Amino acid sequence: MAPKNPLCLPSLLLPLLTLLLPQADSGSFVVDRDHDRFLLDGAPFRYVSGSLHYFRVPRVLWADRLFKMRMSGLNAIQFYVPWNYHEPEPGVYNFNGSRDLFAFLREATLANLLVILRPGPYICAEWDMGGLPAWLLRNPKIHLRTSDPDFLAAVDSWFKVLLPKIYPWLYHNGGNIISIQVENEYGSYRACDMNYMRHLAGLFRALLGDKILLFTTDGPEGLKCGSLQGLYTTVDFGPADNMTKTFALLRKYEPHGPLVNSEYYTGWLDYWGQNHSTRSIPAVTKGLENMLKLGASVNMYMFHGGTNFGYWNGADEKGRFLPITTSYDYDAPISESGDPTPKLFAIRNVISKFQEIPLGPLPPPSPKMMLGPLTLQLDGDLLAFLDLLCPQGPIRSILPMTFEAVKQDHGFMLYRTYLIHTVSKPTQFWVPNNGVHDRAYVMVDGVFQGVLERNMKRNLFLTGKMGAKLDVLLENMGRLSFGSNSSDFKGLLEPPILGQTILTQWLMFPLKIDNLVKRWFPIQLLKSSHPQTPSGPTFYSTVFPIFGSSRDTFLFLPGWTKGQVWINGFNLGRYWTKRGPQQTLYVPRPLLFPRGALNKITLLELENVPSHPQIQFLDRPILNNTLHKTYIYSLSADVQSTSEPMELSGH
Ligand SMILES: CCCC/N=C1\SC[C@@H]2[C@H](O)[C@H](O)[C@@H](O)CN12
């Protein structure tokens, strides 16, 4: 359904002209404070919504997920718009492919789902830097999420592109967007800058007109600083929280109007190295039913979580730096691979007590595929491809520069210097002020010496001859998306120290690994020598056919340590088998070529490769590595059928 702009007016003029031109047959979505409810087209309305992030699901699967959400009984969906996903460089915008936000809005319309939009500018969401673009940090003194003129200039520029595109999609303009959130849990942020919130509210009104319902969302402790006159106040809380107390607190800010929980947690996020998070079905359904009995409108966060593909995961800081896992399954009602779970049917049953749900069955879980074990070939050490990974050559500086300073937003950068004297005894190598952001893989003349990790491992000992190359591969593990009291710069934030010597004279190689891996031919053909004994960050790959149709599957990397995976050039995300809890990576069916065509998988293993460099594709995920057993699925005759798992000793 194409929303209204019949005269194809310049998009910035639209809000102004709607003041003059009454909208024919325009819908309405308003707060009825007299009866503590919403009105949709004049009739009492309560939304039962679920969060689904288009940026965590391949575009070809959007319709499938939205259909399942509708069939679950939802009448609305809620999603964020990550600024950094759409403006990769200042003034460069991308709304194509899996970034086509408007195609997603069309799919939501086709699924008969209304939309609650949350464009930020900050979104949290366990997404890199909470959705703010890393290029903001090229101005090291910028004060994010405040009325800092430099920050507001970038925000204004972005929203003057995005919001006019959103305008035709507003419900009263014939679209499906019924409300729009301003910022995100601002009351939880240290700044509490009301000029900033007022600026945003004014900008949204100027670009979206005065009819659209604008709201804020905060946890109970954040309502004071997160709410603003003129913006409808909503709250977020989960099954374990005290609903009565929280809604009573909300009433202090919204004495009249519908109660709204904008994020009712159906599950929770996972951090590398921590246990997998779950929320029980009885707790989730009990809380939902209690809210619906009160007449509250509810959005369940998440209803379908999806995946942090590529380098897009964010991080938290709870005593130490905690990167979010690649899987954003969230123990949500619809699993990461799009399957309805028992939690979904339980929620659907609760919703059916309060409003009509679509007739007909939920689609069954999608068929899954097993494959392997497959043996990967050694392509070579990462250092062997340096000229291809950094074709423009290194940047030279006396002191190491950050990722942001060299305009490398994500992934990896190699820092190189040369030993100015021989270090014959094992000598301490470290970076002051916890200055490794976030993991460093250290080589001397190409020989792996070990790892430094932010907060976790602050020194190692090495030796080397005068003139030896000292290489430090720096991995950006994702920028803080919540709880950050300072900007999360990445790289070597201080010059490292070897013994008593501050190391200077650095070469920085920003690495364009994705560009190289996208090339189809085996990258080892690009180089002459084939090292027999890999050391440190190393590429492995293989090609494999899928006979018959491709299916969803889960990449399992038993014995591998930590790294990045690409399938047919698509960056599937990070693996960290050694740390868990996630042991498998979801591989969506559309990434795989069927019917005998060759698929290519490439791994960048950052630490240690298993004695047998094999991988498998399983027919089920392993997201909680408290399983103390490693299952190697024996390969049946027709390669892809499921056979009984053979239990091996613990890993
Ligand atoms: C105590 C929680 C404070 C941080 N807020 C969180 S953790 C999970 C969710 C998502 O990040 C969501 O984007 C936030 O708005 C609220 N929330």
Structure description:
With 651 residues, the chain is α+β, with helices and mostly antiparallel strands. Helices cover 17% and strands 27% of the residues. It contains twelve helices and 36 strands. The strands form nine sheets. It has an eight-stranded parallel barrel with strand order 4-5-6-7-8-9-10-11, surrounded by four helices. A six-stranded antiparallel beta sheet has the order 16-27-17-23-20-21, with no helix packed on it. Helix 5 runs parallel beside helix 6 and helix 9 runs parallel beside helix 10. The ligand CCCC/N=C1\SC[C@@H]2[C@H](O)[C@H](O)[C@@H](O)CN12 binds at residues 124-126, 184-185, 188, 219, 236, 263, 269, 482. Residues 400-512 form the Beta-galactosidase 1-like first all-beta domain. InterPro entries: B-gal_1-like, BetaGal1-like_ABD1, BetaGal_gal-bd, Galactose-bd-like_sf, GH, Gly_Hdrlase_35_cat, Glycoside_Hdrlase_35. Residues 1-26 form the signal peptide.
Q: State the end-to-end distance.
A: 54 Å
What ligands can be seen in this structure? Answer: ligand 6DJ
Main sheet: strand order: 4-5-6-7-8-9-10-11
Mean pLDDT: 92
How many beta-strand segments? 36
Radius of gyration over alpha carbons?
26 Å
Shape descriptor: globular
Could you list the spans in which at least 5 consecutive residues all have pLDDT below 50?
20-24, 627-651
Instruction: Estimate the strand proportion.
Output: 25-35%
